[in-house]
Structure formats: structure tokens, C-alpha cells
Amino acid sequence: TFVALNLAMSMATEQNMNVLLIDVDVKNPSLPRLLGIETGKGLIDVLTQSNLDLSDVMIRTEISNLSFVPTGTPHNQSTEIFAGRTMAGLVEDIARRYTDRVVIFDAPPVLASSEPSVLAMHVGQLVFVVESEVTSRRAVEEALMHLKGCENINLVLNKSRPWLGRAQFGTYY
What we know:
The protein is an alpha/beta fold. The protein contains eight helices and six strands.
């Protein structure tokens, strides 16, 4: 969540760059609190109620080029909902309708929830956050197996400390 939010905010501050941040962490939706936003209906509601459109639940944030879609009403079949045709159609619609935006989905940890593995089927690129010196290689490999639905997976090594007293990872030359 921290990386997704910071990536979204950083991209939204670029000139002519619009970002749509979508919270898909159904069990622990912390983005509304971090953004200081009160939420109601959200993505789950759009996917389960045919009378709702994504624009009905999209919230403009205090950052001018950043919009947010909350998770919405909790649902015990969120994995099935995210794996369904309605979600695939919504992602295609977002890509067509909002061609000027980068869309970032904030998902829960891969090994703690089943949602990320089905969401991986719908995205063009995935940023996988690995906590340095905490996440084991085995856990990373297992999680990546769950994400094989996405062909373009990038890793971010988070919370890395300087190595051997060096304050940098390398040099220019």
C-alpha cells in the first residue's frame, strides 16, 4: 500500500499525467485512511450492481491529477468477483475510457490472500514489493508462481539497508 500510494502520488505530480488508484485490498482497505477520505460504495459495488458505473464511485483526491476508487462494500466472494468476466470487462473499459491515465491497483500481500493471483490476469504490468531481509527467497518464488497470469512482473526491494557500510548501491562508473 505504501509503495502503491507513493507511486501514484509521484506519478500524479508529473505534468500531463493522470493516475487512477484502485483499492482492491478487500480485507484491509487502508488507502482511504491514508488519503483522509470517507468512503462508501466502491469497486465491489460496481462489479456486483449493474446500475453503478465506475465514475459513480471515483473520488478526486487533494492531489489534482490523482483519482481514487475504494474497495466498497465487503464481499465474501471477492476473489470470484475479481476473476469474473465483469472485472475483465471493467478493466478493458477503464483502458478504453481513461486512455490518459495510469491505473494502479493496490492489492493485498500475495501469500495472504487469493485476490492478487486473479487480479494478475487483468493487468499489463505488476509491481511486486519484497521486504529486504524479511521475505525469504522461497516466499518470493512461491508468490511469483501465483502471479504468473501477468507476463510483466517487476520487483521493488523495500527497506533495504546499506551494504558493508556503503551508503549507496553502486557507483556511476
